[in-house]
Write a structure and sequence with these properties.
4% of the residues lie in helices and 49% in strands. With 564 residues, it is mainly β. The chain folds into 3 domains: 3-333, Glycosyl hydrolase domain, family 43 (Tachylectin-2, Chain A); 367-510, Galactose-binding domain-like (Jelly Rolls), CATH 2.60.120.260; 517-563, no CATH class. Strands 12, 13, 14, 15 and 16 form a 5-stranded antiparallel beta sheet that branches. Strands 27-30-35-32-33 form a 5-stranded antiparallel beta sheet, with no helix packed on it. A 5-stranded antiparallel beta sheet has the order 28-29-36-31-34, with no helix packed on it. A hairpin with a 2-residue loop joins strand 40 and strand 41 (555-563). The longest helix is centred in the N-terminal third of the chain and has 8 residues, at 53-60. The radius of gyration is 26 Å and the shape is globular.
């Protein structure tokens, strides 16, 4: 199980469990980030969220969903760079609340009329307002709001708190309690001696949308939401308006944010956003909730990705690793970013093809081409199933609920691939890359290999396994030029043969031609081992120039230089 502390070089690493600056686990789900002054008037970033008992259990052993929503507390973390976080305390605890079957979906607002910080959170079937005189103190119950007289249900569907950076006013962004078919905004303030909701504006009425949250960028407001997929990942939808209360467009029809569809927002549900106002640029950070403790869909509860704008529209940049400079607002792709989308095949929560929620005959981010065998079709009992479940035993090696499934009832030939190309803000730079995956097969295939294709050049590595065990497959020295590559898997097999593939990665390892290769041959000239000049063992010779040394009885007999 991988864990990491968010790093001193301001690197955000997704798909892993996060730690504080002291190395202790971060437990924060369904919350938000806000900027408040401390007792000395110095402003910091404060991140509030819920710590659930199931999050502890799953982190310790992520072998499947835990479903324990027991409330430990509302945690508060402090940072000055939005990357490195220090635990402050649990600012709301079970003893302050009393009995509760559900606590979640929260945010904090400063209410100047009351000189109080107000924490608004779902509490059982109502909205609870807890208050404190400081952002990091002990919050206590102040007001419990039954939403029935406001929207018609006692509870909200989902909710977050948004503070307008230009006016200082804070709002609750929330959905209708049943079916989530309406989205509302209410200003938070003081009324009749109580902190609560001052108004209610319906800004959307249409298909059910939860994970309700919003952000502001260059004087425009964006309201976002997800599909009704429970704890699982889904689309990232948005509406936009030049006014806080609308009208929002497209009218009553949220659209999918470009860039988010290939892996459902890096396998998350919309959580919250934070807009960083740096000295050089504004940067919007998408802070997605991966409810892995309750859904089992991968590692890490917090997946943060930068939003860019293309033609004045928000664009989701799905990254596994990236840098953020909170002072300037600049961000850039991390050196070890995995460029494969939906690499763990966990974006799709159900078997594909699927007839409902969603109606879909493909895997997110991947294309399946059937050259021989049964076609992939919704409602066809002979259709191949494109994904499979990982067992708890599998998850000791691979991540998440799902994996790629290559199988058919009749003899088949199939290609499953993904095309990766540079985008406006995330280039696929020229260089040498390493491609890896895990494969498990219980059948002998005629041909089974992993490949990477650039133009007319194809690098490949065979996967000749049939022992029903997971094997790591590595293909070094994949040379990519021109900002585009096709990665995938080719399979040709008899009827009922099967294999599972998971955790596919494509990571840049160096510049083209920045390292010579070295390999050994035996007395007859047959290669026996491949290395980089730094001594790293490789699965194949480097492309380009290699030093070949003939080894006889463990001794070097000759050298020569060859070009592959």
């Amino acid at each position: 199980m991988a864990t990491c502390s968010l790093t001193a070089d301001n690197k955000i690493i997704n798909d892993t469990f996060w730690n504080t600056t002291k190395g202790t686990p971060i437990y924060s789900q369904g919350g938000g980030i806000f900027r408040f002054p401390d007792a000395n008037g110095v402003e910091h970033y404060y991140w509030y969220g819920v710590h659930y008992k199931g999050a502890e259990t799953y982190r310790a052993n992520p072998d499947g969903k835990k479903e324990d929503t027991g409330f430990v507390g509302v945690s508060c973390y402090q940072s000055d760079d939005l990357v490195n976080w220090t635990f402050v305390r649990n600012v709301l605890t079970p003893s302050a609340l009393g009995w509760a079957y559900w606590v979640g979906r929260l945010g904090v607002a400063y209410v100047p009329e009351a000189k109080k910080y107000a924490l608004l959170v779902q509490y059982n079937d109502n909205v609870l307002v807890a208050t404190c005189s400081s952002p990091t103190g002990n919050y206590t119950k102040h007001n419990q709001i039954d939403m029935t007289n406001i929207i018609g249900t006692p509870n909200t569907g989902d909710q977050t708190v948004f503070t307008d950076p230009d006016t200082g006013k804070s709002y609750l962004c929330y959905s209708y309690g049943k079916g989530r078919s309406r989205i509302y905004l209410s200003e938070i303030g003081l009324k009749d001696g109580k902190i609560g909701l001052l108004d209610c504006h319906e800004i959307y009425k249409g298909s059910g949308r939860e994970g309700n949250c919003m952000f502001k960028y260059k004087n425009k407001y964006y309201v976002c939401g997800s599909d009704l997929y429970g704890w699982n990942a889904s689309n990232v939808y948005y509406l936009e308006s030049s006014s806080i209360y609308g009208p929002y467009t497209p009218t009553n029809s949220m659209v999918v944010m470009p860039g988010s569809g290939n892996d459902y927002g890096h396998v998350t549900q919309t959580g919250f956003f934070y807009t960083l106002h740096g000295s050089e640029q504004e940067t919007v950070i998408y802070c997605g909730d991966r409810w892995a403790d309750f859904a089992g869909n991968g590692n890490g509860y917090n997946q943060w990705c930068p939003i860019s704008f293309v033609n004045n529209k928000p664009y989701f940049n799905s990254l596994s690793e990236w840098h953020l400079d909170a002072e300037t607002g600049r961000w850039w792709v991390g050196e070890n970013n995995n460029y494969v989308k939906n690499f763990s095949f966990d974006a799709d929560r159900v078997f594909m093809p699927s007839a409902n929620k969603p109606s879909q005959a493909y895997l997110r981010g991947w294309t399946t081409v059937v050259r021989k065998g049964n076609v992939v079709a919704i409602g066809d009992e002979n259709s191949p199933q494109l994904n499979a479940n990982n067992s708890s035993g599998d998850r000791a090696t691979v991540m998440g609920n799902k994996c790629l499934n290559i199988q058919d009832k009749k003899a088949f030939t199939r290609v499953v691939y993904q095309r990766i190309s540079s985008t406006t803000h995330v280039p696929l730079p020229d260089g040498r890359y390493t491609m890896t995956c895990y494969v498990k097969s219980g059948s002998a295939f005629n041909t089974l290999y992993m490949y990477a294709k650039v133009g007319s050049d194809t690098a490949r590595v065979d996967m000749p396994y049939s022992d029903s065990k997971w094997h790591k497959v590595v293909m070094d020295d994949v040379t990519i030029q021109g900002g585009s590559v096709e990665v995938g898997f080719f399979a040709d097999a008899p009827a009922n043969a099967w294999c599972h593939i998971d955790d596919v990665s494509l990571i840049r390892t160096g510049e083209i031609g920045d390292d010579l290769g070295l390999y050994d041959v035996d007395a007859t000239g047959v290669p026996t081992a491949y290395y980089s000049l730094s001594g790293e063992r490789l699965s194949a010779p480097r492309r380009g120039v290699n030093v070949v040394r003939k080894m006889v009885n463990g001794k070097i007999r000759s050298y020569k230089v060859v070009t592959n």
